[in-house]
Amino acid sequence: MKTFYFKRLLFVIIILTSAIASKAQSNDELLNLLIKKNLLTQQEADSLRSDLALKEQQKRDKDKENQHSISIGSRALQISGLVQARYQGFEQKTVNNAFDLHRARLDAKGNITDQWSYEVYTEFASSVKLIDAYTAYKFADYLKFTVGQFKLPFSNESLVSDSQLEFIDRSQGVEALVSRSKDVIGNSNGRDIGAQLSGSFAKIDDRYLFDYSFGVFNGAGYNVTTDNNNHKDFSGRFVVHPIKNLDFGGSLYRGQGIPTGATASQTRNRYGFDGKYVIGALSLNAEYIHGTDAAIQRDGWFGQAGYYIIPQIQLVARYDTYDPNAVVKTDRSTIYAGGVNFVFNKWTKLAVDYLDKREEVTQVKNNIIEAQLQIAF
Q1: pLDDT tens-place string over residues 122-144
Q2: Are 213 and 180 in the same domain?
Q3: Model pTM?
Q4: Phi and psi dihedrals of 337, rounded to 5?
Q5: Paired residues of 252 in beta bridges
Q6: Total domains in the fold of the chain
Q7: Range of the structural domain that residue 239 is part of
Q8: What does 92-117 look like in DSSP terms, one character per residue?
Q9: What is the CATH number for 217?
């Protein structure tokens, strides 16, 4: 029965891909046919292509203007949101296939003045949670001060917006080592409460060569009314942009945390390196993270590629491996992931991913196929 569901969903993916691709190619094919039949000259066909391209650009410009956002006052309030409805099909017979509401979020932010800004970001899926709540003052491009609850300056993939991820889920290492779902202190969506200095400097033409972020945090995670120890944690990140669309980043975290279910603080340190390059329709990402929790050494890394075969369809592939304990030589987990993203417009996307999971000791039939429909406004 499980195999039947997998095959049926894969069949739907193939049909969707063919339909969108054929729409993009049909105009060119028709014009080429008319040229072969001597009903159009090459010059006339080129003129028609130019007109079609102009109309397509005008449509994109119109979509860009229609942001579906609410603005009150002079940049004082912008409302946006994110809804992600997901389906998961599990190969394991003991786990039920199911629909769920992956994320349902509402974001309110704005600029009170040219220097002062704020954001309040709330999650409504499963239970109501405050995600971000901070205010910031920008002295200049090279110096910005932020205080409140916000994302830790650590890991490129963790800092990518949930609506902009190329896969439905983040990598194993990021989930386990950047205050997310498998971190020893519990899931804080990569956030904490604290203060941060950040900025960009050394501008060449229209881009900066360097970005930096440096913050001090409680280390207890988000939505914690008071720190659970007297120690403050440090997190910092530095990114270099040697050429346009090429980024190299390094991240560092030093702190202490109380694991879920424990009562005493323990060392909780991390460091990581990442790189990203985008050239035309191709995007390449890679990241390595190492973590220390008390005496346990952990690490994980992934390499990922994405390619738009047409503007509406992106194919993605990822190799993702994670070792939860360096002393144990048989506990590494590796995931081979492949997916396709159907981009209907600027706000709506359907993502379909297949995750082939491999364990070092006993192989479990725990592969997953996921489909997620997203609207971000």
Answers
A1: 999 989 999 999 999 999 999 99
A2: yes
A3: 0.82
A4: -120, 140
A5: 236, 271
A6: 2
A7: 67-376
A8: STTS--EEEEEEEEEEEEEESSSSEE
A9: 2.40.160.10
